[in-house]
Amino acid sequence: MLQVQASPTLRLVDGPTTAAIDLAAVKLHLRVTSAAEDDLINALITSATIEAEHLMGRAIMPQSWQLTLDAFEPSVPLRRPTVTAIESITYLASADGVSTVLDPGAYQLVAASDLSASVVPAFGLAWPTTRAQPEAVRIVFTCGYADAAAVPEPIRTWLKMRIGALYENRAAWTLGKAIEQNPFVDNLLDRFRVWSA
109 with 51: CB under 8 angstroms? Predict the structure, then answer.
């Protein structure tokens, strides 16, 4: 029998539609009063937010991701906290390979921690047997803080400081010196960072 090794992959399905910090707040931080560079500042907000999510390993604003697995695990980690809901779980049935939507009553989201989340079979149940082939399981879930007001202040402060650095230094090099990260500023994200083994 073919032995399938689980190789989980994540893919963004629907990105955030709102920003964690608005243009007016960033312009106040930058001491900018003109609208001439609004497009640039909005682009920096987006870039800084993506960088923060990368550094923390978590979603900031509401978004949907698809986790693809070769087979169910006893407890499936969902690696973009804070996870708020599971939209769907589909799998390839072992008998005929037909794509099947799993009944929401057959599984439970375990998300009490804001640093991790997983999905497990509902009490007294087990995962269905899947066809032994790559990408046999797909889990679509939503994650991120409810809205901008729910984003913790240290994350918002990091975003403003990072945007400020990007705004003032518009190249990777200034006078022959590389622009360096500030460890103190990056430490603002440590409480929210999902540390991986």
Answer: no
Predicted local distance difference test score (pLDDT) of residue 6: 53
Is there a single domain that holds both residue 146 and residue 156?
A: no
> In angstroms, rounded to a whole number, what is the distance separating the alpha carbons of residues 104 and 66?
16
Over its C-alpha atoms, the chain yields an Rg (Å, rounded) of: 20
CB 101 within 8 A of CB 88: yes
Q: Is residue 165 located within the same domain as residue 132?
A: no
Indicate whether 47 and 129 sit together in one domain.
no
Q: What pTM value is reported for the model?
A: 0.86
What is the DSSP code string of the chain? -PPPPP--EEEEEE--SS-SS-HHHHHHHHT---STTHHHHHHHHHHHHHHHHHHHTS-SS-EEEEEEESS--SSEE--SSSEEEEEEEEEEBTTT--EEEPPGGGEEEE--SSS--EEEEPTT--PPPB-SSTT-EEEEEEES-SSGGGS-HHHHHHHHHHHHHHHH--SSEETTEE----HHHHGGGGGG-----
Does one domain contain both 3 and 98?
Answer: yes
Residue 93 inside a domain? The answer is yes
Mean pLDDT of 56-68: 96
Q: Quote the domain boundaries for residue 103.
A: 1-16+59-150
